[in-house]
Amino acid sequence: MTSDTLSEIQARIAKAATIADRRPADVTLIAVSKTHPAEAIEPLLRAGHRVFAENRVAETAAKWPALREAYPGVELHLIGQLQSNKAAEAVALFDAIHVVDRPSLVAALAKAMDAADRHPACFVQVNIGDEPQKGGCAIADLPALLEASRDAGLPIAGLMCLPPADTEAAPYFALLAKLARDAGLEGLSMGMSDDFETAVTLGATHVRIGSALFGARA
Ligand SMILES: *Cc1c(COP(=O)(O)O)cnc(C)c1O
Questions:
Q1: Which of 8, 43, 76, 150 has the greatest number of CB atoms lying within 10 Å of its CB?
Q2: Contact by Cβ (8 Å): 146, 158
Q3: Model confidence over 100-126: pLDDT tens digits?
């Protein structure tokens, strides 16, 4: 990663936002650092970037405390499936959780947040392509899950999706944006290395970019 790569991605986000008559500052670039060691992450931190995502609690606990110490102001987002028995650890480590997808996890997170008096922003992950192998709440179950979250006092910032691979992502992004609008939610976590500009034109507030910043994962 060079700081040129970071600037180039930021410029592409800004251009897509401007085309859609949106403000570039309303799109947060989340650098997905999963699998990459601290040495690969530090150039981004040195360039001033502070928002990162990981997909595993254990890897985050091993990698990030020292980096956080060295670079104040880091914001960490969880983007990988979360088991309810790891909810307390996730609440302690992360500043945002993008993978809320079932009532048992809503309950576990709400309990962990109350106990820790720490309230990371949550996104409900929607299984937008109705794919059996993927995490995320079914579209039909979304209203009930949002209601359960409200009842439990879980702070829901928005919706997140991972569209089906190898197909045009735009219709799925547009559908997620509509679901968020219908639910009165502002946050839209959508768009990755191959499709973030499309996601930004369709309203993404958070894009999750790994390989375009760090190169391919092993
Ligand atoms: C790995 C991952 C990303 C980043 O993917 P790239 O294609 O490397 O940008 C984004 N979102 C989720 C949920 C991921 O697991």
A1: 76
A2: no
A3: 999 999 999 999 999 999 999 999 999
Range of the domain at 146: 3-214
CB atoms < 10 A from the CB of 34, how many? 17
Q: Which is the closest atom of ligand 1 to the Cα of 194?
A: 7
Amino acid 21 reads: D
- Ligand 1: list residues with CB < 6 Å: 32, 34, 55, 79, 162, 192-193, 208-212
Residue nearest to atom 13 of ligand 1 (CA): 79
Q: How close is the Cα of 115 to the center of ligand 1, in Å?
A: 30
C-alpha span between 82 and 100 (Å, rounded): 8
CATH of the domain at 131: 3.20.20.10
Q: Number of structural domains, the chain?
A: 1
The alpha carbon of 209 and the centre of ligand 1 are apart by a number of angstroms equal to: 6
- 97 near 123, Cβ under 8 Å? yes
Residue 22 and residue 205 in contact, taking contact as beta carbons nearer than 8 Å: no
Whose C-alpha lies nearest to ligand 1, atom 12?
A: 79
Q: Please report which confidence band the pLDDT of residue 218 belongs to, taking 50, 70 and 90 as the band edges.
A: confident
What are 56-101's pLDDT values in tens digits?
A: 999 999 999 999 999 999 999 999 999 999 999 999 999 999 999 9
